[in-house]
Design brief:
With 99 residues, the chain is of the alpha+beta class. Helices cover 34% and strands 15% of the residues. The chain has one domain. It is built from three helices and three strands; from the N terminus they run αβββαα. The protein has a three-stranded antiparallel beta sheet. The protein is globular and about 40 Å long.
């Protein structure tokens, strides 16, 4: 599954999962979500690296919507916001939107 597909399918019941994705992180990176566990920052068996917990991904997307007058991000925009947060430990603000 791609990161874009995984993020698009997150539901409220997915809390407690950690997302891993192949680097370099893009919307098309191979991704998976597994139950949270100790040492979750270590690469998984497929070599995918820790991205974020699903609860943080949901928070990133809610913040994106708040900064865009409630708009729903496209799958690409959602991936960009999540990757930006994972790499920078801060939210992607409208004036920083990627091309």
């Amino acid at each position: 599954m791609t990161l874009e597909e995984l993020i698009s399918r997150l539901t409220e019941t997915d809390d407690g999962l950690t997302v891993f994705a192949s680097e370099p992180w893009t919307a098309q990176s191979d991704a998976t979500a597994v139950p949270n566990r100790e040492g979750s920052s270590q690469p998984d068996a497929e070599g995918r690296t820790y991205l974020l917990e699903t609860v943080l991904i949901r928070d990133v997307l809610e913040t994106w919507r708040a900064h865009h007058d409630g708009a729903i991000p496209s799958p690409q925009e959602a991936c960009e916001a999540v990757i930006y947060y994972a790499e920078n430990d801060t939210y992607l603000h409208p004036e920083e939107d990627l091309p």
